[in-house]
Amino acid sequence: MDVVFHTEKAVFNYRVAGVWIQEGHILLHRASGDKIWSLPGGRVEMNEASPLSLQREFIEELDLSVQVGRLVWIVENFFEYRAKKVHEIGFYYLVSTDDKQALPNESFHGVEGERLVYEWVPISELEDVVLYPEFLKKALKKVPETTEHLIVSN
């Protein structure tokens, strides 16, 4: 069971995301037909450690085993989605894999079909894409060396 709670006007969500930087590019994904990009990841399940959640999400979405590195950001993210206020707690980890040919260089779909589109986006071009949370556009240009706690509102 995912750690997500719904009320009539609000949602609480506990999410993990992978910060995968390779050759000046960051792996992003978006829903097919949508313009909003985000880091790959997903919801943490009840009684599941967040690094294991991230490994599970990469296996479910890309059939790919990743190494979860250090925690980069803990983000309290407040935003509105589908007329509901969302309070999301996000753990953002560095990720990598030993399989250097694991993912294509062009846009591609995951193992779940055409639901999600993945793409390696040049970090230098992040200002030109719709990326949420928005702090990532600048923060990914210089990933901090220690874990940072952020409170953001989009």
From TrEMBL:
It comes from the Bacteria. Its cofactor is Mg(2+). Residues 1-145 form the Nudix hydrolase domain. Pfam families: NUDIX. Gene3D superfamilies: Nucleoside Triphosphate Pyrophosphohydrolase. One of its GO terms (molecular function) is hydrolase activity. InterPro entries: NUDIX_hydrolase-like_dom_sf, NUDIX_hydrolase_dom. Keywords: Hydrolase. This is NUDIX hydrolase.
